[in-house]
């Protein structure tokens, strides 16, 4: 790392952190009051990142104990200037706060995660239960099982008491009961969404049709991942990820993406898109695991 304007920039390449710098930042964060541990999430944790991709750091904290003042001081030190650091809940009910840091050309996002909520939703998922909430930046919504899923897919960077490592082991496997629930929910809701889209299609209401399509395809994508025993925590790249699963129908990703390609907004054009959607949904749902 080299210094620039009082803050840090990367020496390992444009948009990349230098060797050991990520661990150093995580270690500093783990010393802040209320933080249980720090994980690397997103595409970098999965090895699917591109040059310059953000570093998403999950800050797992105990509710009521997080020292946001110390976080502001650390953010200002790293960036060489004051940085907005939210209180818990500042960004909404699910992605409930954090900060966006620019360390020269490197973008590092701090994302709060209430460790008690993670435990709760992990237990709910094992029982086959979940809820979905609205959250800015997540057009499909955030299913509550994303909380344990994020931790299952993350790379633990700092865990002074070993609590995150133990919790990660508990959520490593996708719960069979949750997979059955997702199969059951999609079996009625995906066809229902597409049937409702037909009502908009006859009026040339392309916006409503697109919304129904997005919901239906999202349900299919989540079902395919659940069927494969894989956590899915974000809409980004979800269709492509589903298409790589052995349980996906032939050319699933291409066919699903094609549903959203620009086309006519007249009733006949929209009906043709929905015909293709119905066929794709039928193939996915026909592959449900019995028993």
UniProtKB/TrEMBL annotation:
<dbReference type="InterPro" id="IPR002934">
    <property type="entry name" value="Polymerase_NTP_transf_dom"/>
</dbReference>
<feature type="domain" description="Polymerase nucleotidyl transferase">
    <location>
        <begin position="23"/>
        <end position="72"/>
    </location>
</feature>
<dbReference type="InterPro" id="IPR043519">
    <property type="entry name" value="NT_sf"/>
</dbReference>
<protein>
    <recommendedName>
        <fullName>Polymerase nucleotidyl transferase domain-containing protein</fullName>
    </recommendedName>
</protein>
<dbReference type="Pfam" id="PF01909">
    <property type="entry name" value="NTP_transf_2"/>
</dbReference>
<dbReference type="GO" id="GO:0016779">
    <property type="term" value="F:nucleotidyltransferase activity"/>
</dbReference>
């Amino acid at each position: 790392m080299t210094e620039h304007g009082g803050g840090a920039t990367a020496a390992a390449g444009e948009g990349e952190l230098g060797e050991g710098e990520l661990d150093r930042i995580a270690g500093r964060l783990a010393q802040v009051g209320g933080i249980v541990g720090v994980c690397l999430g997103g595409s970098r944790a999965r090895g699917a990142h591109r040059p310059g991709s953000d570093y998403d750091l999950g800050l797992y904290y105990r509710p009521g104990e997080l020292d946001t003042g110390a976080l502001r001081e650390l953010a200002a030190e790293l960036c060489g200037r004051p940085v907005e650091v939210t209180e818990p809940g500042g960004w909404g009910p699910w992605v409930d706060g954090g900060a966006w840091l620019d360390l020269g050309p490197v973008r590092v996002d701090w994302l709060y995660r209430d460790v008690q909520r993670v435990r709760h939703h992990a237990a709910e998922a094992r029982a086959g239960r979940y809820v979905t909430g609205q959250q800015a930046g997540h057009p499909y919504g955030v299913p509550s099982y994303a909380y344990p899923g994020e931790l299952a897919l993350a790379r633990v960077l700092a865990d002074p008491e070993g609590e995150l490592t133990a919790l990660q082991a508990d959520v490593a496997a996708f719960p069979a009961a949750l997979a059955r629930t997702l199969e059951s929910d999609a079996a009625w809701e995906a066809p229902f969404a597409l049937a409702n889209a037909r009502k908009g299609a006859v009026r040339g209401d392309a916006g409503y049709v697109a919304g129904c399509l997005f919901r239906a395809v999202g349900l299919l994508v989540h079902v395919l991942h659940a069927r494969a025993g894989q956590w899915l925590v974000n809409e980004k790249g979800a269709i492509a990820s589903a298409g790589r699963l052995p349980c996906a129908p032939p050319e699933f990703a291409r066919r699903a993406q094609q549903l959203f390609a620009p086309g006519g907004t007249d009733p006949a054009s929209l009906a043709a898109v929905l015909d293709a959607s119905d066929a794709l949904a039928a193939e996915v749902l026909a592959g449900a695991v019995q028993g």
